[in-house]
Amino acid sequence: YLCTVTAIRGKDRSLSGAILLLRDVTRLKEVERLKSEFVMAASHELRTPLTSLGMSVDLLLEHAVQGLAKKDIDLLQAAHEEVHRMKALVNDLLDLSRIEAGRIDLEFECVPVSILFDHAEAVFKNQTDMKEVSLTSELAGGMPMVRADANKITWVLSNLISNALRYVSKGGHIGLSAYRIGPHVHLSVQDDGPGIPPEYQSKIFQKFVQVKGQETGGTGLGLAICKEIVRAHGGAIWMESSAGQGSTFIFTLPVA
Ligand code: ADP
């Protein structure tokens, strides 16, 4: 049931009653589940033909280049990029629908945040060097371990860092930090890129939402997947940004 409570107040604002509304959302939940199952099955079926299509295009590009006119090579190159984009979209859709349908198996363990940060810094080293971006991390003293599936949380961190990397300018800065508040550790990824306009901020974690004019060829599903993974850990994710002032994405994980 979905429960809504509305307070009824008198003229002097004193509480005179309350309306309690209970909505049976069983059918709604079932429709949501069926939708996720359908998207999951469709994306799964699309993966195999897309993979062979991608391999054929790549083979053609590798072996037939000499005999082809420039415009034909350009066509093949465009096909290669589109297949690559579709594969990314299908994989993201599959991941998201699996999580939404409750088909995510989390392998919880006690993880030191420093390991998560060190791993992320190592993975992105080449890309940050190439763009001359500095990636630094800061851990508050006495940082406890978190209870998390290290692979899934690494995915979340990588997605946030790769977004930040796409938006910061050459020579920019990305900062990772972690600090404890009560029973949770807050992990944040901050960048000095263009930021996210206020009208997008409340919906940026929804599927397929991309800032108009700021798309960089992604699928628009990364943040939605991050949100579901963090939620499955019992945490929350949000962002803070003012246009032109960069963005900070923050998520929480339970202390181990
Ligand atoms: P994708 O990056 O594949 O488009 P995401 O769900 O990861 O999908 O991000 C959704 C949108 O949020 C992006 O298209 C972009 O407009 C905006 N966005 C995400 N991260 C940042 C960032 N660090 N700085 C500016 N805009 C961002």
Automatic annotation (TrEMBL):
- Ranges of residues in domain Histidine kinase: 41-256
PAC domain mapped to chain residues? 1-37
Question: Which parts of the chain are coiled coil?
Answer: none
Signal peptide, first to last residue: none
Location within or outside the cell: Cell membrane; Membrane raft
Q: What is this protein called?
A: histidine kinase
In which organism is this protein found?
Answer: Desulfosarcina widdelii
The residues of the intact protein that this chain contains are: 354 to 609 of 609
